[in-house]
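Quick start: what a row looks like.
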Amino acid sequence: MKLTVIGCSGSVPGPDSAASSYLVTAEGFNLVLDLGSGALGTLQRHLAVPEIGAIGLSHLHPDHCMDLCGLYVAARYAPGAPIPRIPVYGPPGASERMALAYDLPLDPGMEEELDFHAWQEVQAIGPFTIRTAPMVHPVPAYAIRVEYGGRVLVYTGDTGPNEALIELARGADVLLSEAALPDGDPGNPADLHLTPSDAGEHATKAGAKRLVITHVPPWYDPVVQAEHARRTFSGPIEIASTNAVFDI
């Protein structure tokens, strides 16, 4: 499978990237993980809206889901609309949350354009087997494991350190990990995000083969974050950047 970075800026869009969004493809199927602020524009460099096979939302903070509002408009009003409903997997209540975001009646909300489903522990989406685990964050949040053809990608979403992430990431070929907080800052809030050393430690304990650092806010340097991850992970470390492609 192939991973294409659509947006990797942490917490807010940055000058060089939209907020969180990642395109995973195999057998011609396009799975989008998160669609944060500004990501829909970049996504259309890679595929047209009707080519989206499904969307998976790690959680419902705006930097991970808010461009569903633009997607709803495109699916409803662009030439060729209406298109088949796009499946959207996410935390319970995603349909209602997105209806409120666009000031729509809760019934039907966006349900005529988007087909919302709550995450299950295991499900098939297109050619992929998807496993999820609840993470540690102020709102319900999930890490996502994507399996295809004996290869494994694990995306942390947003989370503080936790054992469930290590278990979900066991043997991953790529761990796509947020590293939103700086190492060594005593003011870092608990149960919110990972530091680079946290990301490296989780990758090491999980036996991940590669670590890709992402979700770095624009006020921190991703190169520094990646260097700090080397303190706790000895394998290959790469930095997510807009339009970067990783073969898995």
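That is the whole record. The mean pLDDT is 98. The domain at 2-247 is CATH 3.60.15.10 (Metallo-beta-lactamase; Chain A).
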